[in-house]
UniProtKB/TrEMBL annotation:
Organism: Allohahella marinimesophila
Protein name, per record: Threonine synthase
UniProt gene name: thrC
Pathway: Amino-acid biosynthesis
Enzyme Commission number, as recorded: 4.2.3.1
Enzyme class: lyase
CDD domains, A to Z: Thr-synth_2 (cd01560)
Cofactor: pyridoxal 5'-phosphate
Family: Belongs to the threonine synthase family.
Pfam families: THR4_C, Thr_synth_N
Keyword Amino-acid biosynthesis: yes
PANTHER family linked: THREONINE SYNTHASE FAMILY MEMBER, THREONINE SYNTHASE-LIKE 2
Length: 464
């Protein structure tokens, strides 16, 4: 399988090279040249596959000849052995034909573990083969950071710098990152917001000269392997609920548009998904775009669902590429305009987007109300991001006969403030392996919202 840039001006890469990169040199994001197809017969044959078996079937075509099947199968089994539920991604019934796909049974209690546990193993495999050390640089609004650190902290091949917005992630999220004291892990709290962190990461990928020859590698969803691993749980949930004989709908709490883009790809690959709901918080640029065909940036707002406090949604570019017939030049022009002005796309492309996605924006008040109500009704504690997914699912549902799956993206104990405000329960409890989290020593550096300051801190930590 080959990968091309959404902006059309970068060389095509194979899977190994695409895993060990970030942005394409032309500023675009890598996408596969084509998607594997899963026929009805093939889906039927996978109905009773375990999560791990399915993961190999879904991902192997993307991996191609970069890893042999036996080695990749072992890697996948090892990856999901780190999860704390036998089903890996269990489905829980919330009400008649509304299901919660619990994606928080990994080591850091968020859906990011699905891809980042695998990515850490992919890095080790390729870097050991090359005998090469790389530098990871990532931006996080809370969950990617801890999942990346957990996935890569034991690697001899990486030094890792994770930027989070100072004071804008939950205390549990911060401690999950900053209490990892391995010498190759560096946490930087930036006096800015997530978009500022992500901007610095992208600028560093675009010009890596400050690293004096060391190579940067991405852990954010600009890295194709992140998206690839997230496609699998859409297949898993749909097959468990009766696909291919039965269609399924998904509601996805959305920030950087990676998770829902994986759902869109699953649909393109043949999974009978009849509805995809983009669920946002007050940072609702994607909802506003889908409602009005105006892509208009608004200032980032801080909400009770901090992991989705994102305005510039990286992966939206991958969708726009498809909506523009994969025309790299058209995309390069569009992305340039989108960064400075309010943009509308051609009506046909926008109508296509509206046919693919429904959307809703959910306020903090509605989020806490939903958490409280769900707790009263069934003692089910939703984290604020998942609560947004649930509310959007109910508001946007097209066909009650089609099972609606809400992606449960994080464990409620990561977001005690929102849960407390909902009046749902006393503090949600962390699982035993994190019971002492609040007592662990922390290490992080606070830096101004300034690219040069961040890069020079990296250079001195790496002793370059
Ligand atoms: C808990 C949680 N839910 C939802 C999201 C949104 O996912 P995505 O950025 O892939 O849209 C994130 C992170 O972005 C998250 O951490
Ligand atoms: N919500 C994310 C933000 C980064 O998104 P990513 O999927 O591109 O890594 C986080 O929790 O860090």
């Amino acid at each position: 399988m080959k990968y091309i840039s959404t902006r059309g001006q970068a060389p095509a890469l194979n899977f190994e090279d695409v895993v060990l990169t970030g942005l394409a040199p032309d500023g675009g994001l890598y996408v596969p040249t084509h998607l594997p197809e899963f026929s009805v017969e093939k889906l039927q044959a996978l109905r009773s596959a375990s999560y791990q078996e399915l993961a190999v079937e879904v991902m192997m075509p993307f991996v191609g000849d970069s890893i042999d099947r036996e080695t990749f199968t072992e890697m996948v089994h090892d990856t999901y052995a780190a999860f704390n539920h036998d089903a890996i991604a269990p489905l829980k019934q919330l009400e008649a034909d509304v299901w919660l796909l619990e994606l928080f049974h990994g080591p850091t209690l968020a859906f990011k573990d699905f891809a980042l546990q695998l990515l850490g193993r992919l890095f080790d495999y390729f870097l050991a083969k090359r005998q090469q050390k790389v530098v990871i640089m990532g931006a996080t609004s809370g969950d990617t950071g801890s999942a990346a650190i957990d996935g890569c902290k034991r690697s001899a091949w990486v030094d890792m710098f994770i930027l989070h917005p100072h004071g804008r992630v939950s205390e549990v999220q911060r401690r999950q990152m900053t209490s990892i004291l391995e010498p190759n892990v560096f946490n930087i709290a930036v006096e800015g917001n997530f978009d500022d962190c992500q901007r610095m990461v992208k600028a560093s990928f675009a010009d890596q000269s400050f690293l004096k020859g060391r190579q940067l590698v991405a852990v954010n969803s600009i890295n194709w392997a992140r998206i690839m691993a997230q496609i699998v749980y859409y297949f898993y949930a749909a097959l468990r609920l009766g696909a291919p004989s039965r269609s399924v709908a998904f509601s996805v709490p959305t920030g950087n548009f990676g998770d829902i883009f994986a759902g869109y790809l699953a649909k393109q690959m043949g999974l009978p998904i009849t509805q995809l709901v983009v669920a946002t918080n007050r940072n609702d640029i994607l909802h506003r775009f889908l409602a009005s065909n105006r892509y208009e940036q608004a200032p980032l707002e801080h909400t009770l669902s901090p992991s989705m406090d994102i305005v510039v949604s990286s992966n939206f570019e991958r969708l726009l590429f498809d909506l523009h017939h994969r025309d790299g030049q058209a995309l390069a022009d569009l992305m340039k305009r989108m960064s400075t002005e309010t943009v509308s796309i051609e009506d046909v492309a926008w109508q296509k987007a509206r046919a693919l996605f429904d959307s809703a924006a959910v306020s903090d008040e509605e989020t806490t109300r939903v958490i409280g109500e769900r707790w009263k009704r069934s003692n089910e504690l939703l984290d604020p991001h998942t609560a947004i997914g649930y509310k959007a699912a109910i508001d946007c549902r097209r066909d009650p006969a089609v099972p609606m799956v809400v992606l449960g993206t994080a464990h409620p104990a990561k977001f005690a403030e929102a849960v407390r405000k909902s009046g749902a329960a006393s503090d949600p409890v962390l699982p035993p392996f994190l019971a002492d989290l609040m007592d662990r020593e922390e290490r992080f550096e606070v830096l101004p919202n300034d690219l040069k300051a961040v890069q020079s801190s990296m250079v001195s930590a790496l002793k370059l």
